[in-house]
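pls ignore typos typing on phone
adenosine monophosphate + seq
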Amino acid sequence: MKVLVVGGGGREHALVWKIARSPRVDKIYCAPGNPGIAELAECVTPGDGSVGALAEFACENDIDLTVVGPEAPLVAGIVDEFKGRGLAIFGPTRAAARLESSKAFAKDFMARHNIPTAGHSTFARLEDALRFIDTFDGFEAGRPLVVKADGLAAGKGVIIAENRRDAAAAVRSIMAERAFGAAGDRVVIEEFLEGEEVTILAFTDGATVVPMVPSQDHKRLMEGDEGPNTGGMGAYAPVPAVTEPVRRRVLNEILEPTVHGMAGEGTPYVGVIYAGLMLTADGPRVLEFNARFGDPEAQAVLPILETDLVSIMEAVLAGRLASIDINWRRGSAACVVMVSGGYPGHYETGKEITGLDQLKDLDGVVAFHAGTRLAGGRLVTAGGRVLGITALGDRVSDAVARAYEACEKVRFEGAYYRRDIGWRAGKNTHL
Ligand code: AMP
Ligand code: GLY
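k done
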């Protein structure tokens, strides 16, 4: 069969890499792809890149299955467009993707369905948000407030405010100064949750939910989780903090009620659901939902998925997820993200990348490309997150050590990566 993958970052490279291992697949296209993906798929840029142009491409090229990586095309309605033309596509509809595209929708939905999450209020008027902050009495007791732009803000629209002044400034920057554009039409203000943050991705056909192995992102730029938030500096899977009882609670109290609630409201959710969770002293709480695989979580989770991904996706689309087995390899995977110097602020691109050829001989190591491009036959940097180096190992610490061994062989001017990926797993010394 022929598969089209939409996107061109590290997550999409991991998707293409896994799909390429499927015995069912003869040909993969990727729009737009990147030089790493180009080793496994034909990279294409149909028309103006709109969902209509992609659907046109899928029709003309007899694509049997389209897989969507990033949120933007989902929120633009790519699944609705493809389904309208009778094309098979893996991902939620635009209405279902509101779980990611509107924090206010997601919070109200969770309240309606008793899904555990931080207490919140939503405001459409600046004055009302400021009045709420004025009367909030938790700052003195050391309880921050979390201020979030309602809409998509590339992971940057969340501000943790320790005091009244910072909270008011956050609301003003979102609603008055429009720091995140239309995402700031409304703000969600919520209580601050303490605990360890984990990601649980799950496959769902709209009725059955099958969680993948838990993973953990590292959002902050610097070691020890310091510095500014980024798109994600590394990930590993599985996560020791997610014990079997925790996993069961997440499935029973969060994932299943969410999927069943979406179906009950007439907007069934089909595809991969991403639950960003805080493991608090009172149990798991939802921080956010995303409507897709995580990046870089996918680069750690997909390499330890044993079952053919294409067969899983077909079962999801046929509504028969309950009838298949999904198996995971023993052991762990870790992905270390190498970024351009200066990221997530200003950085330069066009720096030559060397050493990747040496990784080909390392067993259980894969270099996923994110921000790379070819310039005159040389591979150069083309983005903030440049590469995700994934390695497998028996334990998290083995996988991490092997990923670092590989990172040391890769060079580009200004390259930076965190040296402590997986540190939370290491707190449990027996692992
Ligand atoms: P979000 O995009 O909603 O996941 O928020 C981005 C990041 O902000 C999360 O990954 C958390 O690290 C942090 N965060 C969001 N909401 C909360 C909360 N209620 N309490 C503590 N931290 C939060
Ligand atoms: N790793 C965070 C995300 O994919 O949104």
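The CA atoms of residues 86 and 201 lie 27 Å apart. The mean pLDDT is 95. more later
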